[in-house]
């Protein structure tokens, strides 16, 4: 006998949670570099870890994960937006006020996260872009997709133009070693010094994050919104031709650019070339992220069902897990705790992330056996509905 359609739909939605859990792992692999190395973002690898294994690990992380998994998470944000909008319509409730409260709550959580734990926070960007998504959600699908395409192309062209300017008017070479030492002193000193260093980092990081991540995140929101309204995850069989095209085009176009990004991460080049490779990655990373989703979702529905079952609880409480990752990394690498920044190789940081994520998989499943929401998800839902929701017992 075949399972009822409702059970199939529920399983396919769980696959979205599994994909969210997978995205959470990829985000941790990228973010740990910011915590672990004072050389991160300086365009030069840490000379203390220049062995072939260190370079290869750094190149692989940049190739497979950097600039891809926050986009995958963004796609899922847009998909979830469509589910919440549909649920509000079925209940006959006004959607915009609820979503506005949710986005405000998300922004406040993100602002605290950025100030206290991680200056590379993505939540505030999601909240701001979510407000734009709320306005764009009334447009037709064709217009939404054109806007998404335009945002990606415009962002890539802007960074390519910066590369041209850097080529025409080269800037004086910065003393990367001195900058790295200043970062190391700030983030491994007393907790008050860590807060001050993070405030300084925020001043320079936020404009770059907004210019680099925000437009592409909004584009992926719109792609996810279209996929959610078509209930793609619940109708994978109907969309197999589309999924095949996404895999074929996404990997064919996205992987070469990703390899270029990984190569310059481990073996640096001039600033103009770095900017041009970044622009190429901005143009192609959304396709590669969609190819990841097009590969993972059918696999979760088939041979990867057991892996999906392990990942889904972490994805259901992804916000709590994202903040927990930052907390753990801050305790390990900054003056809040052990102060390991600059002392751990790329291979060792990879092992740390694997151990941390394995613990999160176990903790998430254990938590959801007793509660319906993750702790931060519960707070965000309270802000959304304007009341304290029951924690209840989850269906796991």
From TrEMBL:
It holds the Pfam family DUF418. The keyword Membrane applies. The chain crosses the membrane at residues 21-41, 56-82, 103-127, 147-168, 205-228, 249-269, 275-301, 322-341, 347-363. Residues 227-386 form the DUF418 domain. Keywords: Membrane, Transmembrane, Transmembrane helix. This is DUF418 domain-containing protein. It comes from Lysobacter yananisis.
């Amino acid at each position: 006998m075949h399972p009822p359609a409702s059970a199939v739909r529920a399983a396919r939605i769980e696959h979205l949670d599994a994909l969210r859990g997978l995205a959470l792992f990829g985000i941790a692999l990228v973010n740990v570099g910011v915590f672990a190395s004072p050389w991160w973002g300086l365009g030069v690898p840490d000379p203390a870890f220049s062995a072939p294994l260190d370079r290869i690990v750094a190149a692989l992380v940049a190739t497979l994960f950097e600039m891809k998994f926050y986009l995958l998470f963004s796609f899922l944000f847009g998909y979830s937006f469509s589910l919440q909008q549909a649920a509000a319509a079925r209940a006959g409730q006004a959607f915009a006020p609820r979503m506005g409260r949710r986005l405000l709550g998300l922004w406040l959580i993100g602002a605290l996260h950025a100030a206290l734990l991680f200056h590379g926070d993505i939540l505030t960007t999601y909240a701001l872009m979510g407000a734009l998504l709320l306005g764009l959600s009334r447009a037709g699908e064709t217009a939404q997709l054109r806007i998404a395409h335009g945002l990606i192309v415009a962002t890539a062209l802007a960074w390519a133009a910066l590369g041209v300017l850097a080529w025409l008017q080269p800037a004086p070479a910065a003393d990367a070693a001195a900058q790295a030492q200043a970062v190391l002193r700030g983030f491994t000193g007393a907790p008050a010094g860590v807060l001050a260093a993070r405030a300084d980092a925020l001043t320079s990081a936020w404009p770059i994050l907004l210019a680099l991540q925000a437009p592409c995140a909004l584009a992926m929101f719109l792609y996810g919104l279209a996929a959610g309204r078509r209930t793609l995850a619940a109708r994978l069989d109907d969309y197999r031709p589309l999924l095949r095209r996404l895999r074929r085009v996404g990997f064919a176009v996205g992987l070469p650019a990703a390899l270029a990004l990984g190569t310059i991460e481990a073996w640096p080049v001039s600033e103009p070339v770095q900017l041009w490779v970044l622009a190429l990655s901005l143009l192609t990373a959304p396709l590669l992220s969609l190819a990841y989703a097009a590969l993972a979702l059918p696999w979760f529905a088939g041979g990867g069902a057991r892996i999906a079952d392990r990942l889904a609880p972490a994805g259901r409480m992804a916000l709590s897990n994202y903040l927990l990752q930052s907390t753990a990394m801050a305790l390990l690498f900054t003056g809040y705790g052990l102060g390991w920044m600059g002392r751990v190789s790329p291979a060792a940081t990879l092992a740390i992330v694997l151990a941390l994520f394995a613990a999160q998989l176990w903790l998430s499943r254990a938590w959801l056996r007793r509660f319906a929401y993750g702790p931060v998800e519960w707070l965000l839902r309270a802000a959304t509905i304007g009341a304290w929701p029951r924690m209840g017992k989850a269906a796991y």
